[in-house]
Specification:
211 residues, 6-stranded parallel beta sheet, alpha/beta, binds flavin mononucleotide, Rossmann fold, single chain
Length: 211
């Protein structure tokens, strides 16, 4: 079965909740998974401005930090980030920018990849953020696995994001179940596609890169 790396950045926990649901979906499809955060880069004085930020850091000490070895291990990537001014967070970008050596060696290519995000508002730029993740995956030569409308949950008005699941800030309220169901479906579909790709990776590799 496929190895799936769910790699995320989260300041206050929303993206983390989605990441866990994506991982659960991948596991339901039989995948071996790693749930990994990227390194926090913000200075302490910035973190101190938001009580929820520090609490989330303390509550996720047990989550390992992602490394390039995880990128090499995985057959599939699910990357998640809060939307920051319509695009991905600096913390996740910093991790991505450390992948140059693997990219140059062709170690990131032909893997299944999907993106997810959170934002404060319903139309706060979620789709742009996920498409920016898609751009990275495109440069890596990954096979994009957006959820599209491949399951009934994608038609639920509370979700309905074919690019990748996105969560609007709960602001003390409940997150609709449909969001987490969509996240689980996205993870499950990623793992299923990754299984198929892993079985045939040699068939899609360029002749010069075959082992
Ligand atoms: C610097 C900054 C920029 C943000 N930019 C946006 C934005 O462009 N659109 C939006 O809807 N929310 C924006 N937000 C809100 C976050 O995306 C949102 O609260 C998200 O759910 C946080 O996820 P997290 O709990 O995983 O950190 C921004 C937050 C910060 C701190």
């Amino acid at each position: 079965m496929a190895n799936v790396a769910v790699i995320y950045y989260s300041s206050t926990g929303n993206t983390y909740e989605l990441a866990k649901a994506i991982e659960a979906g991948a596991q339901a499809a039989g995948a071996t998974t790693r749930l990994l955060k990227v390194r926090e880069l913000a200075p302490d004085e910035a973190i101190a401005t938001n009580e929820g930020w520090g609490k989330h850091i303390a509550a996720t000490q047990h989550v390992p930090e992602a490394t390039n070895a995880d990128l090499e291990w995985a057959d599939a990537y699910a990357f998640g980030t809060p939307t920051r001014f319509g695009t991905i967070s600096a913390q996740l970008k910093q991790f991505i920018d450390g992948s140059g050596g693997l990219w140059f060696a062709g170690k990131l290519a032909n893997k299944a990849a999907t993106g997810f995000t959170g934002a404060a508002s319903t139309h706060g730029g979620q789709e742009g953020t996920v498409q920016d993740l898609h751009k990275v995956f495109t440069h890596w030569g990954c096979i994009l696995v957006p959820p599209g409308y491949t399951d009934a949950i994608q038609f639920d008005p509370a979700n309905g994001n074919p690019y990748g699941v996105s969560l609007g800030d709960p602001r003390g309220g409940e997150v609709p179940d449909a969001i987490f169901a969509a996240a689980r479906w996205q993870g499950e579909r990623l793992a299923r596609v990754a299984d198929v790709l892993a079985m045939h990776r040699d068939a899609i590799a360029a002749p010069a890169t075959k082992a």
